[in-house]
């Protein structure tokens, strides 16, 4: 149904009434609008099974990463017996044993931490960069904006896996910190582009103009009026991004340029066992299923949040 | 139109320089001896290291090093490995394999992706739509190497639908399975983009006009709505070429296809850092070039862009 | 004019008791509730109403371009020279669209396809409906663009819509709609998106072409100013129903519905200089939950208990002048003073 036609022209509001009207507009745009958007989104989200399924699974993986001892009594590379290598799943070893005869279940549990840590850390750093620089560039425009845009273009010109491969081959360290650094370097561009676009589209909105008219400072306008209204799409992309980073990191581990033995991660486990997949498929199945399910959960969570935040896409 | 082409070419120059400088700086300007770092923990004789240091001009200032390196690169000099073999020679016979794989994957993701996207876009909110959305999310979530091994074991070894590995059966047979694995990620994005974009365009005012003109449904969808929906898809195809080449490293490794990607894959395992750097830098350059071409094509597809 | 004239004496276009409903997430939204009007050759009927009054939906129902679902034509009939259009097979219906009954839209920038040249879009009419070849269609398109007074038409054929000014774009829209010399033109807010000076040019152009082609025109608008000069008869819509129906002069002079009176009082008029402008209080009702009685009652200054209990019938207050108000004769009488 069409609702966008202008109504029957009413009388113009008197000029004297402009200021209170502007104040009301600023409040409506900055605060009431925000509250109801997130409230509505949450009410909508609560009703989706996809949201709950992914949230519950991710909570499980998070606990696994935080306190692996809850799931297994064995430490990393502990109690390995080379004589019982490559055993299939059994009562003693739920997920079987790996090439070195270590309990595969314990390894899969311990693999959650670096995987999740890198995925979340990379996204948080990229999110922070996007928030600060995307906001400043979008709000002030001009030289700063041009500079940010050009630098973004350069980093965007580097494909994720290829870029990370070439950098990591020469990188002096391959720990969780180093991986996070390299992946932030290659992955910060998506969110800042969206943030900047959002800020530019919100910057000239009536309620922002109104706030400016009332004498609000730049900092206050950015924090109270622009940020809340520009944030939604960035949060959606951030959620999806965690999944993508985890998949990318696992690929680098698998290629052999990521985390190195004796560290443990799902990608690394798959790398070490890759020549034995054909005869011992359990070595492929368990880490792969957990890895894929974790990525899938982040993607579904992001999709659900997007649908909840943007009703017109339904 | 020519102004658009010219502007786009000029814009590409800083990106080109910035990207290659970035790679160069990350590889050769980090603290420590880059030549030793490239070898990892592999023992390299001191005289070989010394030769390489000279080869990469590591005693010059960074920008001079970079300049000399790029100059060599543009002349086809991709560096040497630790035994003095030229990287460009190691790669020379491998380009056709990678090209065949990339074309197979591209055709696959474009054809099937568009088909699924249009199908879902026309039936938004119904079963077909849900199936396409769910299926593509799943494909995106499974990392390409997991998908590769799974497909190889199930479709190649168990059910023998496709050759397991190698290029003995030639194109297209040997390239079908690796091509599908490689194209699966792109396929998912193409399908989702097409679906969303088509569904949006079907609600556009100009589609209502097309209906009011008395055009058939096929013409309204196939000519008016689809043409507009293809614009974001084409843009994506350029970006996707980058992940396609990253994926080629994995896929050629798994399916034992003797292409550029396999060389990179093996060189990583053998800790032949200089080979990896040389080969991947070329791939990045190709990516930038393809992206430029796609952007120019975009100008033809969307007339609004040309006159900005 | 086309050959089958239908039953003798049948009006060019007759819309009778049209009801359109939307299924919006399980809610039954009544967008149009019993719209009726007739249109004769060369005549202009204006459908006047604010946004959400159902006037655009009604027009799209007449054209047959509503998305069904979610829309549904629940009842009513649309006859073109006596031939019932509702329920015609889609192929027949499609052949009429653009050929015998055409439509132009509010915002030509979005209503024209951005990726095709205007030449492509005008030619398409001849190629699809008349099976013309490209060359022949091009010649017709140039002729047509000259007819709607686009300067250097032949050269501009290869331009895209965004390269034209707003007024020129609307002319292209008009050219496209009139390509096949239709019997009926539905103009949905044809000038709303334009500057005032350009508005007048477009309305004059439409009037001239209407005379030339002896077309009937349905002019849909919310703008009393646009209606004043061109409409022969006016249908005022409120919340999906007809509030009042009268010849244009009669409606302006003696409105017989409080809503129409409110509309006239809320815009400045040259003939009432110095009179205060009075806005209509409140907002139109939610079409998903229309009040049981008169839809205008909650905003009506003279509503009584009867109004919110019973929907008012259309009553004739003067020849050709009907009003859906329980107090129509009184309102009509009062307006004469």
TrEMBL record, chain A:
Cell location: Cell membrane
Entry keyword Magnesium: no
One GO cellular component term noted in the UniProt record for this chain: plasma membrane
Main localization (coarse): membrane
Any one GO biological process: transmembrane transport
Residues that span the membrane, as ranges: 49-67, 116-140, 160-186, 226-247, 284-305
Pfam families: BPD_transp_1, OppC_N
Keywords: Cell membrane, Membrane, Transmembrane, Transmembrane helix, Transport
Protein origin, superkingdom: Bacteria
Entry-linked CDD domains: TM_PBP2 (cd06261)
Membrane topology: Multi-pass membrane protein
Annotated protein name in UniProt: ABC transporter permease subunit
From TrEMBL, chain B:
Record-annotated ABC transmembrane type-1 domain positions: 95-298
GO biological process assignments: transmembrane transport
Chain segments annotated as transmembrane: 12-30, 97-119, 131-155, 175-193, 233-255, 275-301
Chain coiled-coil ranges: none
Domain of life: Bacteria
Record's bilayer topology term: Multi-pass membrane protein
InterPro entries given in the database record: BPD_transp_1_N, MetI-like, MetI-like_sf
Subcellular location: Cell membrane
CDD domains: TM_PBP2 (cd06261)
GO cellular component, one term: plasma membrane
Keywords, sorted A to Z: Cell membrane, Membrane, Transmembrane, Transmembrane helix, Transport
Similarity comment text for this entry: Belongs to the binding-protein-dependent transport system permease family.
Record-linked PANTHER family: DIPEPTIDE TRANSPORT SYSTEM PERMEASE PROTEIN DPPB-RELATED (PTHR43163), DIPEPTIDE-TRANSPORT INTEGRAL MEMBRANE PROTEIN ABC TRANSPORTER DPPB-RELATED (PTHR43163:SF7)
Name this polypeptide is given: ABC transporter permease subunit
Organism listed in the record: Actinomadura litoris
Phylogenetic lineage: Bacteria, Bacillati, Actinomycetota, Actinomycetes, Streptosporangiales
